[in-house]
Amino acid sequence: MMMMLNNEESEIVKDEKSPCEKPIKLIELSEKPRVYRIPNFLSDEECTHLIESSKNKLRPCNEISSGVHRSGWGLFMKEGEEDHPITQNVFKKMKSFVNLTDSCEVMQVIRYNPGEETSSHFDYFNPLTTNGSMKIGLYGQRVCTILMYLCDVEEGGETSFPEVGVKVKPIKGDAVLFYNCKPNGDVDPLSLHQGDPVIKGTKWIAIKLINQKQQPSNNNNKEGSCAP
Ligand SMILES: O=C(O)CCC(=O)C(=O)O
Ligand SMILES: [Fe+2]
Questions:
Q1: ipTM of the complex in this document
Q2: In the Cβ-directed half-sphere of 60, how many Cα atoms lie within 13 Å?
Q3: Cys staple from 47: which of 126, 150, 155, 202, with CB 3.0 to 4.6 Å?
Q4: What range(s) does the Fe2OG dioxygenase domain occupy (predicted)?
Q5: Is the CB of 205 under 6 A from ligand 1?
Q6: pLDDT digits (tens, 9 = 90+) for 31-61
Q7: Which of 205, 211, 225 gets mutated to test ligand 1 (max ligand atoms within 8 A of its CB)?
């Protein structure tokens, strides 16, 4: 049985002044793996901008890659698109709690209609595979993930961590920060997660993967496939 956590049941673990806006609170949902809800991380204007600037450019993600199936629609922002002042302000807020360097991959925006989902997977690169270790060399390990909910979802569409029985309900403007690696840097199998099928309504999210390493400035190959 999954446990549904909400803000009232959880503990406030950090309360930092963002350089630009109101305080950003991280509410711990799980200690192992480290999962935090960040209420009201995005303003309505930021949610609207991310949806409106992406909605005509989405491509279907009906593909299976490395065993992961995503049936929604997605877009990887081009690096220039990340330069928009609204997106830059979102990054500025992220920088108050993660080390957001140029090595991070470009932001993704994903839309799920009813019945659409992302199957269970890890966001980390598997260091035991040739492909994974190559990507770690190129981009650095994906130590953590920031997933932002751009709208409410009428029913379904939770982000679930099945190994630890945590389900996060999409709430417009909230973000979830979770660590794909343990504090010692090893990959964390407990970070297995999935986007549950949307039952009613539409789910829009934006995702920023936080890679560990500084990217060489001439590497433009940051755009990947739709799969995580
Ligand atoms: O849709 C979700 O809630 C999860 C998506 C996800 O984990 C991913 O895109 O890597
Ligand atoms: Fe993921």
A1: 0.99
A2: 5
A3: 150
A4: 103-212
A5: yes
A6: 999 999 999 999 999 999 999 999 888 888 8
A7: 205
**Ligand 1 touching residue 142 (CB < 6 A):** no
Distance between CA 13 and CA 31 in Å, rounded? 11
Q: How far apart are CA 65 and CA 132, in angstroms?
A: 13
Measured between alpha carbons, how far is 76 from 225 in angstroms, rounded to an integer? Answer: 8
State if residue 191 touches ligand 1 by the CB under 6 angstroms criterion: no
Contact, 141 vs 125, CB < 8 A?
yes
Inter-residue contact 63 to 211 (CB < 8 Å): no
- Only one residue has tokens 């403007």, namely 173
Residue nearest to atom 5 of ligand 1 (CA): 195
Nearest ligand atom owner, CA of 118: 1
Domain boundaries, the chain: 3-61+68-211
Q: What angle do CA 74, 78, 79 make, to 5 degrees?
A: 140
Ligand nearest to the CA of residue 74, numbered in listed order: 1
CA distances from 170 to 8, 176, 222 (A): 16, 9, 27
